[in-house]
Amino acid sequence: MFPVSLSANFKAYKICAIKLLFWCSMIYHKFSQVKAIILLPKQPKPLQEIFKLHKRKMSSAATATEPEVPDDVLFESTDVFGVATLNRPKALNALNLSMVTKLTRKLEEWEKTKQFVIVKGAGEKAFCAGGDVRYATALEPSQNSRGKTFFRNEYIMNNLIGTYSIPYIALIDGITMGGGVGISVHGHYRIATEKTLFAMPETAIGLFPDVGGSYFLPRLIGKLGLYLGLSGHQLKGSDVMKAGIATHYIESSKLPKLYEELTNSTTADNLDSVITKHTDLMHSHPFSLLPLRSKIDHCFSGNTIEEIVQRLKEDKSDWANNTLENLKKMSPLSLKITKRANDFGSKQSLQDCLKMENRLAAAAIEARVSKDFYEGVRALLVDKDKNPKWNPKTLEEISDDTVNKCFGPLEHIEEEISYLRSRKK
């Protein structure tokens, strides 16, 4: 037995020791949590959660950076159909973020409530001349999140059109380029006129044929799609249908009658017959590029851009020489990216192509390996000196590693397009 005083002191010491152990364990536990937060890799969000995030951004993207512009898209509807009119005629109806947001929201609504949808452009010159790339490149790369938001939301809209469960009719009367192709070519009906002017001119501004270009271009006959994508060659009128980009052709003077019948006495049941009645198969108009088919297929079957260039040099025809001179004006990096994207897209779904294009667009906006996109827009659309200073300057300066960096995943997972629906059955 210990003396009473010693026993009391021992009990006091014992209580202190227990308290000390308790606080040490609490400190260790908190430190472990902090350590885990610091050291453990960030876990990706489930696909469903990412998709919800994208849908929230899609509905609020315009207001997050700028207010929606009133009347840049006009909507009218009945119980049977909806009509969307792109309403920026002074800008050739070029798409901006406000328009993309409104169109997506309305198309989602109409898919559930209408039998068919018509999309057309205001004015006499253009259906839609493309995306507003001046807007997309107005900020410096390090600050240009809105540029990435614009492209990502545009591609989500392209997929909505490509998977639309009710008939989607695009009246492509006039200039139809870039983003204008994206809101027409993926739809069920694309009706061209003699005023239709098609092109995918992105390599001339340091970009690549996007809005699903990596999907639909490789599916055109032979190597026509790669030729159009690399060179930016323009197709006019009935050629747009002959190439497979439009589904129907009509003289522009007859377009009002077609529109009147579509909007007065047409339902989903007789829609196809109404469109067929008013349009022309143009059997008497041969495809202007038909005489060049074999040359296009041979030269653009090269495995690399360098091999395509060599085959064009060996051909020595006027067409080959003109094509060579044209390709020399394009961004060398854009040419290589376009070829790689075309090869990939030929075997992939629309959804996979758009996900890839989102990465490529983000790389261009970030100027990850080059500021060619900003330089091309400056030279052709801002200063209009038509003398872009490409960097890298030549094909030979561009390694596979450089191209690979443009196709790589994005730094922030929320910037990826992680979910896109496939076509409804």
Describe, in short, the structure shown.
Residues 82-407 form the Enoyl-CoA hydratase/isomerase domain. The chain is an alpha/beta fold and 425 residues long. The protein has helices spanning 4-39, 47-65, 97-113, 133-136, 145-162, 179-182, 213-216, 224-231, 238-242, 255-262, 271-278, 293-299, 305-315, 318-329, 332-345, 350-366, 372-382, 400-407, and strands spanning 73-77, 81-86, 116-121, 126-128, 168-172, 175-177, 189-192, 197-199, 235-236, 248-249.
Summarize model confidence as the mean pLDDT.
87
Oligomer: single chain
Helix content: 40-55%
- The fraction of residues in strands falls at 5-15%
The strand line-up of the biggest sheet is 1-2-3-5-7-10
- Total E-strand runs: 10
Largest sheet: 6 strands, mixed
Outline the low-pLDDT stretches.
1-14, 24-64
> What Rg do the Cα atoms give?
28 Å
Report the span from N to C terminus. Answer: 88 Å
In DSSP terms (H or I, runs of 4 or more residues), the helix count works out at 18
Structural classification: alpha/beta
How are helices and strands ordered from N to C?
A: HHEEHEEHHEEHEEHHEHEHHHHHHHHH
Indicate the overall shape. Answer: globular
